Amino acid sequence: MGIVDVTRDHVLKTIAEYDDLGGEVFLAKYGFKPARSYLIRHDGRRYDSKAVVGVAHRHVNGRALGSGEFSGGAATVVPVLTRLGFHVERPPAGKEPADSGFETRLLVSPAFGSAESRRHWKDTLDQLVPFAEFEYAEKLTDEQLGRLKEFHPDGQARFWGATSGHDGKMAEVSAGDVVLFTGKNHVRAIGEIGAIFRNSSFADVMWPPKQGGESWHTVYSLREFAPAEIPYATLSALLGYKPNFQYPGQLVLSGKRARAAIDGLLITTNTALENAGVAAPLGKVSELPVERQHTRSTIVERSAQQVLFNRDESALVIEFCGTLIDTTAIRFASAAGICDIFLDGPGGRELIEAKSRVGRGYVREALAQLLDYARYAPGVVDRLTALFPEPLDPKERWLLHDYGIDIIHRVTPGVFERVPAPDQAREQMRNMWQPREPGH
User: Fold this and answer.
1) Full-model pTM
2) Dihedral angle sign, alpha carbons of residues 232, 236, 239, 242
3) Which residues, other chains included, contact 166 with Cβ-Cβ below 8 Å and sequence gap of 6+?
4) What is the share, in percent, of the chain residues with pLDDT greater than 90?
């Protein structure tokens, strides 16, 4: 169960506890820091949004969520609270920190440039490392081995790391953060960080240092790993860097920049899905049907439609978002998953789902996802829209228009055309778009 299972009554009970203890004691008791970007305003008082939602989860299944177990901010906590009828606001003017409420960090790691790094890539990214075998396990503490098995119960994982010179940066990185592996003027792969710890002895087994060379110090496993082929110029445009920036060393980005890249590339981590209540959290055992009860599994199985990174759809979304004026594209997480694009600008609120193909199956998939996501949107949605790389056949266009869904397709690179649904169909379907509490 994720934060999407929290109800209004759960939040009100937690606010009452917050009032009884006082904010400072409440945060210290449950291990949260003061909210960086979003506060609940209730009966004239303000409360730390992430802490309240995390502690409110205790009323769902008896266990409060810790700060490191879920992300706060506009994509997760805010939609939950808004749907439950709470007013969420930013801190008073002048007190808002530079970073946004997006808490997932982005690690940019050179990994495919030198011959040595390419050899390491082949040994621990191209293939799984059997860390539970004695050669590796003897170098791990019990806590480190246990943590690895939580993320990788079959005893195998992909690994990467960093030398001690990056300890300060790497101390900020945690499970669920995203890493972009770079080299040869491209992002070569995208990963989701699993277990992370410091252990040079373990690192030396996987990556023996050259004579007189330096051992890697921080080690992290990859919970998810997907090949990519993203030019530096594309990443730099998302991050606001110069087009010729070469990403020469380790970067750890947070806040708005991290969000710009993660959302812009349509990266969807297991952690984000768990926080939204889509996937089972780590350690949750799933009972299988009778005919499949030969084993039990603690492995989180993501939906067939949820992938860490979809190259074609990501490229289409980046190209389309580059045409937007006076509107910022975001994504929000919910029990239905994580949407592709949510616009809240002068033209109203619009939910857009991108597809890399125009076949019947892709059109039906876009239809289902749009109707599902709309129920959880932060506010009433004015338009639902499907985005495609080329025009649809008439029968596919009619299907979407019958449900009041607009179509946007690419005409030429950087140029898109909207084919709006009939106004009558859109109005007839609008009741289905209203945000509502789960179960209603």
Assistant:
1) 0.73
2) positive
3) 217, 218, 250
4) 52
